[in-house]
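Re: your question from the hallway

Yes, I did run it. Sequences:
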Amino acid sequence: MNWKIEIASALLVLLSLVAAPAWVLHVESEAAAAHEASPARVITLTAVAAGGIWTEEEVAGHNYWRRQPEPARTVVLSGENVVIRLKSADVSHSFSIPELEVGPVAVEPGKVSVVRFVAPAPGEYLIQCSTRCGPCHEEMLGTLVVLGSGETLADYPPGLLPPRTKCPNHGSAAHSEGGDR
Amino acid sequence: MTGKTQNADPPNEGTVAVGDKGRTAQPRVGGGSPAWRLDLLAVIPGLRWLVKRRWLQFAVVFPNLVFFYLFLIAGVFGSPVGNRNIIIIFVWILWWFLLITLMVPFASRVWCTVCPFPFFGEWLQRGALIGTRVGKPGVGRNRMFGLNLRWPKALSNIWLQNFGFLGLCTFSVALVTRPIVSVFVLGGLFVVATILHLVFRQRAFCNYVCPVSGFLSLYSMTSMLEVRSKEAEVCSKCADKGCLAGNESGWGCPWFMYPSRMDRNNYCGLCTECLKTCPYDNMTLRLRPFCSDTRIKGYDESWKAFIMLTLALAYSMTLLGPWATIKDWANASETGQWGGFALYAASLWMSALCILPGVFFGSVWLGRLLGGGAPKPLKDLFLGWSYTLVPLGLLAWIAFSFPLIFVNGSYIISVLSDPMGRGWDLLGTADFKWTPYHPELLAWIQVPLLGIGLFFALRTGYRFAQSRFGSTRSSILGFSPLAVLLTAIACGFLRLFVG
Ligand code: SF4
Ligand code: SF4
Ligand code: SF4
Ligand SMILES: [Cu+2]
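Structure:
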């Protein structure tokens, strides 16, 4: 046996086991950075049709099937530049915040759609989906909370907006935070 | 070694005597044109040099290993949407398509040459990625690590693979729509292969456990590529037997074959070791006619043929057929119709394991009656004729796989640029859209493919009948019930494909 060749090829194998995930992380961070326009708050929201929600949580292969993510209550500061990166964990959705005249923007699985706007006056605003994505499409859960100066999320207790009750999949999630399928 | 290799049954066809260079004519039992062989090492410049390189297998497995590693990463951290994730598109669409339409019919088990699943196990077992070792303890003359136990005799067949594959295929919809399920299955193959390599000797995992292996072994019988010894004379005088026992130039056949006596493709993983170990260059790689190995050696192999044909039918019905209900049942993990799923699974297992074999047995039994003459052992007829399902099944699978690639072609291109479905665009093809294809063209591909399958099924079936019944009249009579069954199955596929 030629030990030099053995060791070199073994090193090659071990190196590739580290290099592959490193490369993935690198490409992902570049893709995310491309959407940043400083100074801005960058938020990623993922639409999940099965549970009828928008969520700030990462929805990937490993957790999609395990649990229902929390519906988003995305917090920004009034006057801030906001960039929202939109993803879908399943089917085609579309994103809009009607009161702010943001969107609608198509959100496709495997793609990232981007909306940019300046956070308006303080308040809680409904995020909506206007594509038939599933039984809950009209009432996909998710809100944008815009804080005025000196305010915190405590100033916006849950329940400011009317409860959304039409969706059979929401279960307890419509009323409390999160909840299982 | 195991019982699989040396079997004294006379072969159906004259494929034992082998010629040396170039095309060689061989007599064939039961008439027909003499079978030809083309020694690829003799005619392709540089090929002999290449297959003798010790680094060859590492050089092809390593890139594949990196790809599968990335697929697993994509499955875990990428989009949960199946057709946006490379693990689904590349493994279940592209890999499957290449495997069944190109590799198996034209290059035998070449997938096993490049397959990454046994990589870590074999590395640990050999203590080498490229080099070889001689000495004790080990297997044959090779020094090997691990327990090197012999695989249990009772499991030295492909029944485990039959049930494993049928089991996996029952959940095929989850497998091809949910990346995480593929991660568990493919990752599981790595883990189980590694463990079994440490406990059992050589490629016990591949030969007896790997669920992919079963249909590779069965359908590679049709393949136009084979590894065989050249001159029996040389082997009988050979004292080295490196192809079996290993030597300084390479490992003894990891697949438990005695390469020098090998007369079927089934359990040769094309690892090229015997091409390296034979001191007389008496092993070679040859091109040959389609469907050259025709001998089914046991019920495990027959049942593999039944299972594969049934699965091809079931998939054609669920994926291409108009029955939405069956689709929903098969797709229980999305639709939640578990009752329907149980019905679907039960009928799948029943058809594959009982109904099709039963109908097949009926036609063999009837054929024996009609053929007349001295009573013939049913087992011999059953096994011999069950080979007819091999070309028919393979070509039905190929015909079935074309629409898959047509429909999902655009995903293959777009997923190349965005393998994890995270909005990347590595090559600028992330938004690639397939130009609308013409479904009527597909039939022009599928119908001839089915025709080829039926032709080879009928031809090999009739030749086998001739070898058993003798006269043309009783061969035709004896084969007729089965011929009707085969034609009916082909017509069933035709209806599903053409509508
Ligand atoms: S038998 Fe299975 S694990 Fe072994 S090399 Fe072939 S495909 Fe890979
Ligand atoms: S080592 Fe070569 S010559 Fe010897 S038995 Fe094997 S194939 Fe034949
Ligand atoms: S050693 Fe030869 S016969 Fe054995 S698996 Fe490898 S190529 Fe096939
Ligand atoms: Cu939606």
